[in-house]
Every structure is written in C-alpha cells, then in structure tokens.
Design a protein that fits this description.
Layout lengths: L7 H18 L9 H8 L3 H7 L3 H19 L7 H14 L1 H9 L4 H10 L4 H9 L6 H21 L6 H12 L12
Helix pairs in contact: 1-2, 1-4, 4-7, 5-10, 7-9, 9-10
Length: 189
C-alpha cells in the first residue's frame, strides 16, 4: 500500500524512491534489492520510505498508478470507441515499453493485472458496459475479465519484444472483448 499525497514534497520523495527502485532493477534481481539500497539510491531516509510505502512492491504499484493516471489525464478521450480507446492505450504503453519490459524481466507482471483491475473501470466504454449490467454483483467479474484479457495481451506483447504494432494488439483485444456487449443482458437466477 502506498500513500496518495497532494503534498508536493511527498510526491517528489515518492518519485525519487520509484526512480531509484527502477534504476536498481536494471542492475540487480528485484528480490535482492533492499529498502536500504533504495533509500541510498534515492538519497532519502528510511523513514521517508516508510512514510510513503509499506513494502517495495508498493513502489511499483505507485509507479503503475502514476503511469495510468498520466494516461487518463493526457491521452484519454471520452468520445473514443472501444477500439480507439485500446489503440490509444496500447500506443501509450508502447511509449513506456522499458518499464513493462523491466517488470516482465523480474516476473512482476501480476502487479500490472492488479492495478489494471482498478484502472479500467475509468475507461468510458468499459464503464458504460458496467453501468448497464443488470446484476451489480457481476462488476468484479467483468472487470477481472477485462483486466486479465488486456494484461495477458500486454504481457505476450512484451515477451515477444513488441513484435507487432499497437494497432494490431488493439484490434485483437477488441475482438476478444467484443462479447462484453452481451454481459449487460446477463441475469443471476
């Protein structure tokens, strides 16, 4: 868990810690990196780390959260179709491919799926589907399916060194998710 702060100094400390961890991950296995190393690299005190993060995995979740919030703030368009939304999103991910490659290298892609599940409810097309569900109990299942589908495509794309264009990945993902239109008609007996 990480603290979301509006305090500019706390935000700066979080960014320094995140940058330090990512830099260390380029050199050392993730599991061997210590909080002390992160603090030394970031040039912050341990108490600064623990004021902002509980565990080092929280630093990566914070980094993903910032990445996704940046996407929503700077690239997202509420008039997009699902295909356009996904195309824009995959293009944005491609621009950040080094980060995702690093997560994959350290077998940490599971945090991408976890963060996506929270994030995707903010996509307009997906939120429209969720809003039309007759059974609100199905929302976590729909979000889980969407997150797993998109995350799986991202992970294979990363593992294959981004060997196809973001347009192709977006088109393929759109086909995979096209059945969601039927979810709004599903009832629990």
């Amino acid at each position: 868990m990480y603290i979301i702060s509006e305090n500019p100094q706390a935000h700066q400390s979080q960014k320094m810690i995140a940058d330090a961890l990512l830099k260390l991950m380029q050199i050392y296995p993730y599991e061997d990196i210590t909080i002390t190393q992160i603090c030394q690299e970031a040039q912050v005190a341990r108490r600064t780390f623990y004021r902002n993060f509980e565990f080092k995995i929280d630093v990566l979740e914070y980094s993903l959260g910032i990445l996704f919030q940046n996407y929503l703030s700077n690239y997202f368009d509420s008039n997009f179709t699902m295909r356009q939304e996904l195309e824009c999103y995959f293009e944005y991910l491609f621009q950040n491919k080094d980060f995702f490659t690093l997560l994959d290298k350290h077998n940490l892609f599971h945090i991408v799926n976890k963060t996506h599940t929270l994030f995707f409810s903010q996509f307009i097309y997906i939120s429209k589907i969720i809003d039309t569900l007759k059974e609100p109990k199905l929302t976590p299942y729909v979000l889980g399916f969407i997150s797993s589908t998109i995350c799986s495509n991202i992970q294979f794309w990363v593992k294959n060194n981004f060997d196809v264009s973001f347009e192709i990945i977006a088109a393929l993902t759109t086909v995979f998710l096209s059945g969601l239109e039927n979810a709004k008609h599903f009832y629990i007996d």
